[in-house]
Amino acid sequence: MVRAQQTPYVTPHILHKHYAQAFDTPQLDGLIGRDLEFYSQAGFDMEKIYLKRNASVAQLYEDAIRNEGAIISASGALINFSGKKTGRSPKDKRIVYEETSKDDIWWGSVNIKIDEHTFEINRERAIDYLNTRDNVYVFDGYAGWDPKYRIKVRVICARAYHALFMHNMLIRPTEEQLADFGEPDFIIYNAGQFPANRFTKGMSSTTSVEINFKRMEMVILGTEYAGEMKKGVFSVMHYLQPVKFGQLSLHSSANVGKVDNDVTLFFGLSGTGKTTLSADPNRLLIGDDEHVWSDTGVFNIEGGCYAKCINLSAEKEPDIYNAIRFGSILENVVYNPLTRAPDYDDISITENTRCAYPIEYIPNAQIPCVVDRQPSNIIMLTCDAFGVLPPVSKLTPEQASYHFLAGYTSKTPGTEDGVLEPIPTFSTCYSAPFIVLHPGRYAEMLAERMSKHKVHCWLINTGWTGGKFGVGKRCPLKYTRRIVDAVHSGELLTAEYENFGTFNLSIPTAIEGVPREILNPSLAWPDKEAFSREVRKLGGMFHKAFALYEQDVQAAVKAAGPTL
């Protein structure tokens, strides 16, 4: 006979199902004057909605578990799920065509136009949906650690998961800063659980991610993937920093040496190793994804990190592994139902499993995330699916401009909706999905800063070696880390170099701890004819992709590409 387990004693108040809720008092009491007027004018029904502004992490945990099916992992992180969309939807991104920004935006397949009327329809649709929710969450935070260039961001959403995500990714205000927050500079209305009307003019699906620079607002419909909010903030900073402040915004990670205080910027798209390589036990992390190179130094845009979790282990990436604890969010990660232990090798939901955590969770984080020193090195990261680019090359200033504009890499599985295997792509400025202005504006600012501060530039390939995707294998992380260490130590400045044909790259002949055949890809390929064929094929792709920028660059930059 199996008897039901009985608890001998339970504190009486725990038995009352509304015990916790009784202390989750509505935040309306703290909204007076202009604050209350803001929500009312925006269209929120303040008589019905239950507003939670900058709720505590514990309260957001409780709400996510109670209302969204989230669970607490064995390490204390919250595991939650984004539904159908497990990656960004770049084809559904829109920018409002309006008079204040239309002459600055680089219109095309990345920045697709919609009219102001359509934006207003979708904005009202989002607010109407939020008005039907039992709980509406507001998070007020900052983008940009340098007070001179930061903006105030307000996120309004209906999922505790989304509120906690932005709590981690934005810079969290102190109680005093929150009390004096005032009017936000940018607002996100996230109604991602509710679809867009695909018959509305300008819509291509039930998903819509729209930014209006005149209103400084973003509307999200039809996708619950939290990364859309993060990249929306970056798009706004990618516009404001050059246009309003005259500073260079970059899709990059950054760290600083503990001894010499030398700053390194890492450029690269998702899956190239920005987050992994910038988390270095010998250096302080400024940030893992979005930065601004200002007139006085480098500062992080974000207050947290958004790391890929696929095949994560304590041995390979201890800093990231140990950051997954109470307050962090594991997104779309499979877990053991008995132990609640995450299974980072299971990709049955998506290969784009992620963790969002406050940057303070990294022991070596530079807090505040700003350094008043100019960079010494720039590392351009690429993930070459053809397996022909060297693991490290020293670039001339002209080559640096060429490769920055070309932005060659491979989209890795899961980072975008529908990407199931590596796809070679050219992502200008290493940030094409998020770029707002013409690439030439960012490239010109980068070249000026590199020349002024005599910055060294390196092209590092974290992709395949010994063959293309499906034949070779990815360059082992231990070798890439050793190469990065050689950059920071200055070892590569005194190394001997040889020319890598077709691409005319200077590659070192020897680095201690890295096999010779790894340094020169032609030695790693058993089939030399196949190697030559793939080199020429990739070189031709570079020529075709760079044709878009040839008229806007100097002859020396154009000549810095592959020679066929």
Question: What would you say this structure looks like, in words?
Answer:
- The protein is α/β, with parallel strands linked by helices and 564 residues long.
- The protein is built from 16 helices and 28 strands.
- A hairpin with a 7-residue loop joins strand 25 (464-465) and strand 26.
- Mean pLDDT is 90; it is low at 1-23 and 25-33.
Topology summary:
Elements: H1 19-22, H2 34-42, E1 50-53, H3 57-68, E2 71-72, E3 78-80, E4 93-96, E5 112-114, H4 116-130, E6 135-143, E7 151-157, H5 160-169, H6 175-179, E8 186-191, E9 208-212, E10 217-221, H7 227-245, E11 248-257, E12 263-267, H8 274-278, E13 283-287, E14 290-293, E15 298-300, E16 304-308, H9 318-323, E17 329-331, E18 354-358, E19 370-371, E20 375-382, E21 392-395, H10 397-406, E22 408-411, E23 423-426, H11 439-453, E24 456-461, E25 464-465, E26 473-474, H12 477-489, E27 497-500, E28 505-508, H13 516-519, H14 521-524, H15 528-546, H16 555-558
Helix pairs in contact: 3-5, 10-11
Number of strands: 28
Instruction: Note the beta-strand portion.
Output: 15-25%
> Which residues sit in consecutive blocks of at least 5 with pLDDT less than 50?
1-23, 25-33
**Largest sheet descriptor:** 9 strands, mixed
Global Rg: 24 Å
Q: Helix fraction?
A: 25-40%
N- and C-termini, Cα separation = 81 Å
What is the mean pLDDT? Answer: 90
What is the number of helices?
16
Oligomeric nature of the chains: single chain
Structural class: alpha/beta
